[in-house]
Amino acid sequence: MKLDAKIPEGPIAEKWQKHKDKINLVNPANKRLIDVIVVGTGLAGGSASATLAELGYNVKAFCYQDSPRRAHSIAAQGGINAAKNYQGDGDSPYRLFYDTVKGGDYRSREANVYRLAEVSANIIDQCVAQGVPFARDYGGLLDNRSFGGVLVSRTFYAKGQTGQQLLLGAYSAMNRQIARGKIEMFNRHEMLDVVIVDGKARGIIARNMVTGEIQRHSAHAVVIASGGYGNVYFLSTNAMGSNATAAWKIHKKGAFFANPCFTQIHPTCIPRSGDYQSKLTLMSESLRNDGRIWVPKNMDDVMAIREGRKKPTDLAEEDRDYYLERRYPAFGNLVPRDVASRAAKERCDAGYGVNATGEAVYLDFAAAIERYGKEQCKIHNISNPSKAEILSRGEKVVESKYGNLFQMYEKITADNPYKTPMMIYPATHYTMGGIWVDYNLMTTIEGCYAIGEANFSDHGANRLGASALMQGLADGYFVLPYTIGDYLSHDIRTGAIPTDTKEFDEAEKAVKERIEFFINNSGSHSVDYFHKKLGKIMWDKVGMARNEKGLNEAIEEIAELRAQFWKEVKVTGKANEINPELEKAGRVADFLELGELFARDALERNESCGGHFREESVELDGEQKGEAKRDDKNYAYVAAWEYKSESAKDSVLHKEELEFKDIELKQRSYK
Amino acid sequence: MSASASIFQSSIAKKYWMAISGLFLMIFLLQHFAINFLSVISPDLFNEVSHFMGTNPLVQFGLQPVLMFGVIYHLAMGIRLDMQNRAARPTKYAYEKPGESSTWMSRNMIITGLTIFAFLGLHFYDFWIPEITTKYVAGDISGLNAHGEYRYFEELVHKMSDPIRVGIYCVSFVLLALHLMHGFQSAFQSIGARVGKYKNLIIGLGKAYAIAVPAGFIVIALFHLITH
Amino acid sequence: MSNMNLTLKIWRQNGPDDKGKMVEYKVSDISEHMSFLEMMDVLNEQLIAKGEDPVAFDHDCREGICGMCSMFINGEAHGPDRAITTCQLHMRTFNDGDTIYIEPWRAKAFPVIKDLMVDRSAFDRIQHAGGYISVNTSGNTQDANALPIAKAAADEAMDAATCIGCGACVATCKNSSAMLFVGAKVSQYALLPQGQVEAAERVKNMVEQMDLEGFGNCTNTGACEVECPKGISLENIARMNRELFKSMVAG
User: Fold this and answer.
1) Is C72 within 8 Å of B93 (Cβ atoms)?
2) What is the pLDDT of residues A486-528, one digit of tens each?
3) How far is residue A321's CA from residue A347's CA, in Å, rounded to a whole number?
């Protein structure tokens, strides 16, 4: 099968408009004859459900949580990018496009990214109209902040809860359609398979998680908006329930999975404190606007701090190594996430980690507090202010910017970040890879779409801060509702899809058999036991830095672990009741396949790009010595994997060559 | 929801009426206190004002029924809301620490309220029923005793000479204070006025009122017990 | 501080129709750095190892924003600490040898599904009744900066919008009243110009649905505000009361 991205002809700035002008539309009267299933209700799924319902389609929306409002988009803190140029600092759709492609280390599809940048401005307008309370300045206009990896201020935010506010906006739009009867909402339901009829996605098998009932749902198209697969690492900033099952099921039935090894390890998370840890908590990247990252220069001080003999505040300036500022003078603490994460790992691997586990660096606000404090004293005409006066005024400014993050940090760690530096360490956060989609966001299964984090298209090998929210909403509000019409226009005479067909029978049977297996298997280890083991393999060998030996080992180890899982997993409870262990078992079974493909993809890609760092591929000399080395000659493609068996060794690689007509490929330099 | 239904049936509208009847009763209480306090300053003035209030047709046939209705409504609605509220939590917690998040007064309005109502029974038996009997059953609206003097002050002093009765009155006023301590600010909250710059003012006024008025009544009762 | 041994008294209820009861468990070697839910994970691993049914509880993001976790711990919603959800509660709040009571949210409108899980779909239905601004996605709504909004109003709307819909207000209120939840949504839109057009209908419909769900009345005890993990102010209830009054007067 040849991959066809279906990128429209013409200059990049005109592609989307021309495409919209030409694609087929569905007459309003016919839309009500068409059903669409949307799996997932985060920013992408929620906004898509609402918009499709507004257009007149009958939408069936599914989420595993007890309400669409709880999807994990809600946890995004920092902000959402849009090329509004409200600050007059020279921003434009082209610049946002450029920054996103560059930030993604030239492994994303130009046409999709340009479209994303183009519709970004509409998102802000739409959200404000919905009543999303973005931060404003005293003139009543929208405020912006700047984020890592870019040179303009284009990030809109709502305190440190931007994801929450945007999701509640999409949720409110959904509520309006639920009230109109245009969205039928299935809370606490989990999709367990997709049903393909005559090569087209025509429905899903879902489990009612309260009663255990296995249900058949049919539709003319199926949209997967189930988020990323970061929980393959067990510990990540994802929610406990975040899973890859929906995405993996469509992969098994024919949807190619693209670039699974492109995973973002976010630099600013609260470090792990012990083996019982169930998840990691992100601290917004916006903290790097004012926080300075450092470790001690001298090993003696590191030891003294770990043993509690010294406090970080005891160290003089000259004894501190502000390693990001040292290595990247131009961007300093605002380098992109992948660069910041690797730099932290480099210091900790060298032994300079500052907590008991040796995996933590400092994020220090003392300088910012002093700077803001002096500024405030000047504004208020206080001459010769005392140190205490400066600090107290500075702390107030910092509190107004990051108060809720500081409070969260203090609740978790019992340290006061106004007085002592925060400790941070990188953690798995976002997966750029995902289901392969064409320009219309359709997967390689006809009628099956993937949007938001679940697809691969816009972030290449690394995602810039504040771009995930932008992509989720762009796909759901402004892209999919148009492109899906082109496909559905052929279905106006199809009529309702029956569920009493052999395709549904077979899919349901397979789902039921798997559930029966889990319930009846007399194993000896809980699901978490296997999940933690998988996570450890992934983190150690497919984590922030990867090499051939480790990846080969990981592939073998995951295959072994998977075999052991199917023999020894123990699931308590029954099938026909609320059963969190059963839910986890199904999800971990899928992660155990995905993890192996992930490692295989990482092995195949012998270059360092974005979040994927191969130790074999680094610059050997010059100014960039030791930095990641991309190989555009051999790897400027999207790796789209076709499923053949549960072993990733059988998976078939298809390459979508990436063409860059509007951007010159350059080595990323943040020096 | 039709407008007329919502004005009476929505949970919030019921609270408006609770608040409005409560505020009305607080105004009544204030004037009642003011008149009673005259008995400490000047028995003659007290007699004159009492006679006016007891015989003025506007007060007797206009305000008195409204007051009666207000008391009954406030009580009946209070009981009804309390029953609804109890029904909203059919299974109780095994372990609760309500004191961590709210005051005893705010949680026990029904207890303080019912006690005050029980006290009202005694109060009616003491003053209101004899008064009504004299005026409307016996038909004597002169307000004079056998000696041809106003009887109001004398009756008051007579009732307040019993230490047990005064004791009951005092306990009831303490409960009234507790009821008002929450009720005053709660009424303003229910009508949506306990907000912004008025919030602290209302809370302060509420405390002052809730302490001063019942304390004043206690002072009056004790004054007559001790001086006569 | 060394690790702790604790006695847990947990509400176990097999399903909506089961009667349910408090059951005692022991956990040992609990680190003070654990979150409360991680302590529950330890208990569940222990139960699974013994072949017993693990305790079912709602949780998802474990960073205090999704609103899924919902435990009434030692007599308080989300436990003894303030301004946090159960998942952010850490074991350092407790002492070695403590007995901890863990119960589900209690309200007629929040029936128990299993153990500590309750059905909060009543909240969703209230939102369906009016928790939105009727604007379609068109791509040509007016520019976001066309209508300036005073910073104070935007900030206050944000403070109301920060509600995570966890239901701690209902669980805490002695009347199981949902007024803080509904008041927060009504306030968010009442404070923004975009919300004005439908303001009267919105508050009427949302309050009507709230009443239909069987929540109790507000008696202004203020407990909800104290226990709310996001510090939603009682002023939002006052504002809703005003908004409803305005809508009734306006007819």
Assistant:
1) yes
2) 999 999 999 999 999 999 999 999 999 999 999 999 999 999 9
3) 10
Query: Which sign, positive or negative, has the C-alpha torsion A44, A67, C167, B187?
Result: positive
C16 close to B (CB below 8 A): no
- Calculate the average pLDDT of chain B: 93
Contacts of C199 in chain B (CB under 8 A): none
Q: Is the pLDDT of residue B8 over 80?
A: no
For chain C, list the domains and their CATH numbers: 4-103 (3.10.20.30), 121-249 (1.10.1060.10)
Residue ranges of E strands in A93-199: 155-156, 183-186, 189-197
Number of domains into which chain B is organized: 1
Using the predicted structure, report yes or no on whether residue B1 has a pLDDT greater than 60: no
What whole-number distance in Å separates Cα of residue A204 and Cα of residue A8?
A: 31
Residues 160-219 of A with CB under 8 A from C: 161, 164-165, 168, 171-173, 175-176, 178-179, 185, 187, 210
Global pTM?
A: 0.96
Q: Is residue B3 part of a domain?
A: no
Q: Identify the H or E element spanning A49.
A: helix A43-55
Cα A580 → chain centroid: 24
| Longest Cα separation, chain B | 65
Q: Domain of residue B71: give its range.
A: 9-87+104-227
pLDDT digits (tens, 9 = 90+) for B52-75: 999 999 999 999 999 999 999 999
Report the relative pairing of strands A422-431 and A361-364 from DSSP bridges. antiparallel
Q: Which of A154, A202, A337, A463 is catalytic?
A: A337
For residue B189, give the nearest of C109, C238, C243 by CB distance.
C238
The ipTM estimated for the assembled molecules is 0.98
State residue C13's pLDDT score.
Answer: 97
CB contact set of A85 (below 8 Å; sequence gap of 6+): A91, A92, A152, A154
Write down all domains in chain A, each with its CATH number in brackets.
Answer: 267-428 (3.90.700.10), 502-635 (1.20.58.100)
Which residue has tokens 């005024």? Answer: A393
CB contact under 8 A, C219 and B91: no
Catalytic: A337?
yes
For residue B155, tell me if it sits in a domain.
Answer: yes
Q: What is the CATH number of the domain that holds B163?
A: 1.20.1300.10
Note the pLDDT tens digit of each residue in A21-73: 999 999 999 999 999 999 999 999 999 999 999 999 999 999 999 999 999 99
